[in-house]
Design brief:
The protein is an alpha/beta fold. It has one domain (4-291): Rossmann fold (3-Layer(aba) Sandwich). It is built from 13 helices and eight strands.
């Protein structure tokens, strides 16, 4: 597989075809969306993690998957090129659900497979809680502990998250850099590190505070989220890195036991970002998962 920098150079000379659009609604932040790949292919909607963006899925949208599938990516509110309201009330569950619904409606997605990384898995949970699963084909959860075992310790994100919320820019940058390092098990090549750090810095400190506060309010009853996924009828693939520094493998094993019919794909010596750290395997497994859905 080509190195990341080679892909950047090649696509700079001959960019892949994608459609860029914005969703504007009264009293709601604008959502930035891109459509990629085969317009006649089966559909996949990618939802990124905290303080990241739709370009986190660079290694999927700029891959052979584009020849086969119609892929949609979005910048969640508070992230990337989307609007960034500064108040916690803008980041409660119903807003995340409505944003996902608006994205599906605006792009005309019919029964897409939802791919949710970390925070993205919770966005899917809020969507299911509000709209149910009748309009989706399947779910791929990546490092997202949406079915929570109360006997396990909380996620190991506190120190880094605190630095990322600092109003002091130097502290903020150092926290963001530590966050990017913690998302992978092995050091990233410089060009990938720079790319991910730049994407991470698109979310300002006040917005990060608001997102985490809103999520805390929305997830105050984890047993409700647990029930959502346990009662979902669509196929679910759980993707997890064995060296995830935020969420230990015990969380993945717990989810596999609790979500009836789910499948667990464990990536040895991979961290919180299997789709980035091992894109060849991830893309193949995602392709097989989508193809296997009736």
């Amino acid at each position: 597989m080509e190195y990341f920098s080679e892909k950047l150079n090649r696509f700079a000379q001959s960019p892949p075809k994608y459609k860029k659009m914005s969703i504007k609604r009264p009293n709601e932040p604008t959502l930035a969306i891109r459509e990629w790949g085969n317009p006649l292919g089966r559909e996949i909607l990618f939802i990124h993690g905290f303080s990241e963006g739709q370009l986190s899925f660079f290694k999927q949208t700029y891959s052979e998957l584009a020849e086969k599938f119609r892929m949609v990516t979005l910048d969640l509110r508070g992230h990337g090129e989307s609007g960034k309201p500064p108040d916690a009330a803008s980041y409660i569950g119903r807003h995340w659900a409505d944003d996902l619904k608006a994205t599906m409606d605006a792009t005309g997605l019919k029964k897409p497979v939802l791919v949710g990384w970390s925070l993205g898995g919770f966005v899917i949970a809020f969507y299911l809680s509000t709209y149910g699963d009748s309009q989706i084909g399947g779910i791929n959860l990546i490092g997202s502990p949406v079915v929570f075992d109360p006997n396990l310790s909380p996620p190991n994100t506190g120190p880094v998250a605190s630095l990322m919320q600092s109003d002091d820019l130097e502290t903020n940058i150092q926290g963001s850099l530590a966050f990017v390092h913690a998302c992978v098990a092995k050091p990233l090549p410089p060009e990938e590190l720079h790319f991910m750090l730049a994407l991470t810095m698109m979310s300002p400190a006040p917005v990060r505070k608001a997102v985490l506060s809103g999520m805390e309010l929305s997830a105050s009853k984890p047993e409700k989220i647990n029930t959502i996924f346990q009662n979902t009828s669509v196929p679910i693939l759980i993707t997890w890195g064995s060296a995830d520094s935020f969420h230990p493998v015990a969380r993945a094993n717990y989810m596999k036991r609790k979500i009836k019919g789910s499948k667990l794909s464990l990536y040895e010596e991979i961290g919180h970002s299997p789709f980035w750290e091992d894109p060849v395997r991830f893309n193949k497994e995602l392709s097989d998962f989508v193809d296997g859905i009736q």
